[in-house]
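The protein record passed on for reference:
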Amino acid sequence: MSVTPDLECRGISKFYGDFQAVNDISFSVPPGSFFSILGPSGCGKTSLLRMLAGFSEPDTGEILIKGNPVAGIPPNKRPVNMVFQHLALFPMMNVGDNIAYGLKRRKVSPQEQRRRVADVLERIGLPGIEKKSVDQLSGGQKQRVAIARCLILEPALLLLDEPLGALDLKLREQMKIELKTLQQTFGTTFVYITHDQSEAMVMSDQVAVMNHGRFEQVGSPQTLYYKPETPFVAGFVGNNNRLRGQVIEAGNGSVKVSTESGQIFHTTSTTHLQQDTPVDLFLRPEAIRIDRESDSLWQNCIKGRIDNILFDGGNSQLLVRDTASPTQLTVALPQTDEYQNLRQGEIIKLGWNSKQSIAFRAG
């Protein structure tokens, strides 16, 4: 027996004059899941979110929530709530009144309001703060209160429009974990809009990568990272070195590429590529291994000079320039004793296997 999705979009398009912001998008979100829409500014993700919330209507296509079409239903009548980047908490109300606001509008009894407010505060890890003013809360606490104000109404969907964008970096990292925990605690379906790949990858069950009004690929964070289907996804999800070249041999998913600087690399491809096809080869910094002394057994090897060491703890990187060409690669620097004494200008060997890179038709 199939389960009805909490959200389903069928062929959704949206025009603003001659400009098409959303182009024939179809997808579904199963109950109780965390679904993110990831893309750069201007890709159409906010236009799509506004249609889901009911602030605008699609020009073509259909939106269903819990299996029911919502065309023509205004935002306040949809089983949907929304958390904005700037939260929109009422500063003249205390925490309890902020959270109970929607219940009051629904004419829920004061006794039931108090019970449900206490329950939701317990579940978000902030028990007993009903009487506090909003100004007394930290940034992370305000985030949780804003989410609690929505979740207390038990919506079918919670829409989140870049809710962490106004937070500092350290708090944003903490809130990514807390948001995922809250979603699992309440079991409510979250639809999350962001341009930050880290937010989408850490929190989501499924991610849709959006570009120029379309979904380029929908999949788990692991699928998008390890098996990108388009060059845009390969370049947008995670960090990548990009090398331009030409196919000199291809077959059964394996490709041999000659780069513009004359290097020969073995790689893979998910599409059919013919000889002499111009391609972009994508290679992740963390897939490259550093070898200081021995002859490497990797399929692809280069000798390079360290141009720069970008130290950032566990996120440290090397900029390494091939000694035989102008090619420069970004390489993840493992934090082990073996590499603590690397120095700028040192010659090292780099290696990777063919399955750790992928080629797409250039374009």
Notes: Helices lie at 45-53, 95-105, 110-123, 139-151, 169-186, 197-203, 221-226, 231-236. The first helix runs from residue 45 to 53.
